[in-house]
Amino acid sequence: MLYDVLFHTDSSLTEVSLFARTLPKPKAVFKRKPFFNGRLPIFNKSNTIHPQVEIKTENDRKYAKKYNENRATSKDKEISIIDLDKVEPPLNFLYEKLTLVTSFSQNHSREGLGFIGSAQQQMPNKTIIVYDLGLNEHSANQIMSFCNVQLRRFPFESYPAHLKTLKTYGFKPTIINLVLNEFGVIYYGDSSIRFKKPLSELLPDCVHHHGFLGQIRCFDPKIPRKAKYGCYHDYGFTKKEMYDKIGVNKTEYHNANFSSPAFSGGLMLVINSSSVQWKIMRPWLKCALDVTCIAPDGANLRNHRFDQSALSLIAFKNMRGEWTLENDPTPHHDTVVSVLRRSNGAKWKPKSCS
To answer: Which Pfam family would be a valid example here (predicted)?
Structure first.
């Protein structure tokens, strides 16, 4: 099936349009009151969970049964929707479904070993999916030998030609959407991601924000990087054509008074809620598959941030006010996950099971 169950194209693979799906369209974004105390999820009486043990309460079982029944009778059986806007699932249920995903080509294969090794250390029983963006045979065989790792070749032939140019980064929203619909809860990380703690710690933050938890680098594009408390914002590194395609006024975005969060594109915890699908994933994927949106003429890393710019603009347009300086989950996120670019991941010693 070309693209995935959410999109179809004509035979030229140039036009992208949405199916008329039965997925409920969420109402306006609302603010939840925290349903947990402190930062630790309440998995059991001691507020702890061992990464090798999935604790199943009666409430977990009832929710899982209802979820499976609803999915079995749904017209969209291929889509694993967990609708947080209707009911907050047990955290154990979410953690059980959580799947780890990364993607890299041969030039990042050594770095990617650290993603795998650190994930195995912190979450030994979790499935790790690696999308092959151009690995040689030796690296592919090595990755397939690691415990709980699936290697999947990305089907470039089924997508618009610009996805083959990896520096347009159109493959990333595409992969995220594919696995999110398949598993319902995923953590996507670039090859440079390293896990310091189990991701169970981050689930309450993710649920509190309708199913999307990313790393926010900056809230206000007016703060210069060289200022004492400067930060990295993509406002000046986003081509005007992308603003127009997504439908965001560039001046309004610039003057939004700490309401323009700049998300990193390479690390995020995502739950497949209807809000995430309608407000983030569908418009993000639509942009990724349109070369004039994701990679306008003249775009390069000196003037444009591709998937990252698109994600930030879409979050501003569709979920403005959801993330603020007061409720920013990034500091907590950074205690669980770190980024080590251009590192040799072999020192994390991924475990082989073959």
So the answer is: DUF1647
How high is the pLDDT of residue 163?
97
- Rounded to the nearest 10°, the torsion over CA 306, 312, 313, 317 is 150
Closest CA to 318 of 16, 29, 86: 29
Are 95 and 203 contacting, i.e. CB atoms less than 8 angstroms apart?
yes
CA distance 311 to 318: 11
pLDDT beyond 90 at 313:
yes
Tell me, what DSSP letter sits at residue 99?
Answer: E
Q: How far apart are CA 235 and CA 259, in angstroms?
A: 12
Distances (CA, A) of 117 to 101, 113, 121, 132, 133: 13, 6, 6, 17, 19
For 225-264, write each residue's pLDDT tens digit. 776 667 889 999 999 999 999 999 999 999 998 999 999 9
Pairing of strands 212-218, 262-271: antiparallel
C-alpha angle 155/160/162, rounded to 5°? 100
Distance CA 57, CA 210 (A): 24
SS3 187: strand
Exposed/middle/buried for 93, CB within 10 Å: 0-12, 13-18, 19+? buried
Mean pLDDT calculated for residue range 50-57: 43
Residue 301 has pLDDT above 80, yes or no: yes
Candidates 175, 263, 259; CA nearest to 214 is 263
Instruction: Please state, as a whole number, how many other Cβ atoms lie within 10 Å of the Cβ of residue 312.
Output: 29
pTM above 0.70, yes or no: yes
Widest CA span of the chain, in angstroms?
57
Give the burial class of 92: count Cβ atoms within 10 A of its Cβ; 0-12 exposed, 13-18 middle, 19 or more buried: buried
Measured in degrees and rounded to the nearest 5, phi and psi for residue 290 equal: -110, 110
**By 3-state DSSP, what share of the chain in percent is helix, strand and coil, each rounded to 5?**
40, 15, 45
Residues 188-219: tens digit of each pLDDT: 999 999 999 999 999 999 999 999 999 999 99
